[in-house]
């Protein structure tokens, strides 16, 4: 593989790998998420905040790993890029990865709202699960678009090999020769 293709492959793998690493970092930091600094978090048991962090990290890990695998397999041989699709979807994945890294280790996250009546453990977990599912669907759509923007040119079993006769082409040619 040429050096330029290898560099392009690494650049294309960066957004999904960083997304997965952001989720892994969030997951690794989740046991240390509780804090007594924020007054409304004292209402919640300490384990709720750690479980919330685990719930938020799972979609990032799953989507990042799936996208990294898909891009890795697509860029193995020859591939084409839909540049606008890859740039826009990759920018969103990088933003989500950056958000995962920034939110890890911060107990005053946006998904711990006391004002929305989720100051109970069940409310906080339900709010986090709902937000994670919505985020998973939204970001999952962009991850899917990113993976479709990197199109591999793989030979399939239906492609003709060199030296192979084209049976259908020969049938059509013989039909045309009879008509003349």
Task: Give a summary of the structure in a few sentences.
By secondary structure, the chain is mostly helical. Helices cover 66% and strands 3% of the residues.
Explain the overall architecture:
It contains five helices and two strands, in the order ααβααβα. The protein is mainly alpha-helical and 180 residues long. The protein has a two-stranded antiparallel sheet. The longest helix has 29 residues, at 46-74. The model is unreliable at 110-115 (pLDDT under 50).
Helix content: 55-70%
> For the terminal residues, how far apart are their CA atoms?
49 Å
Biggest sheet layout? 2 strands, antiparallel
Number of helices: 5
Find the count of extended strands (DSSP E, 2+ residues). 2
Structural class: mainly alpha
Average pLDDT, to the nearest integer? 79
Sketch the topology as an H/E string, one letter per element: HHEHHEH
Outline type: elongated
Contiguous low-pLDDT stretches (5 residues minimum) are: 110-115
How much is the radius of gyration in Å? 24 Å
Strand content: under 5%
Widest sheet: strand ordering: 1-2
């Amino acid at each position: 593989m040429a050096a330029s293709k290898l560099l392009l492959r690494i650049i294309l793998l960066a957004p999904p790998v960083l997304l997965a690493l952001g989720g892994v970092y969030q997951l690794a930091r989740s046991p240390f998420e509780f804090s007594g600094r924020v007054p409304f978090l004292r209402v919640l048991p300490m384990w709720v905040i750690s479980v919330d962090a685990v719930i938020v990290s799972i979609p990032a890990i799953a989507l990042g790993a799936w996208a990294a695998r898909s891009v890795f397999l697509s860029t193995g041989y020859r591939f084409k890029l839909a540049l606008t699709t890859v740039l826009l979807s990759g920018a969103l994945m990088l933003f989500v990865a950056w958000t995962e890294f920034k939110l890890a280790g911060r107990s005053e996250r946006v998904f711990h709202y006391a004002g929305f009546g989720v100051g109970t453990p069940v409310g906080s977990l339900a709010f986090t699960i709902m937000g994670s599912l919505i985020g998973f669907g939204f970001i999952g759509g962009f991850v899917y678009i990113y993976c479709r923007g990197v199109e591999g040119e793989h030979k399939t079993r239906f492609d003709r090999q060199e030296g192979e006769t084209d049976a259908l082409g020969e049938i059509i040619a013989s039909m045309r020769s009879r008509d003349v």
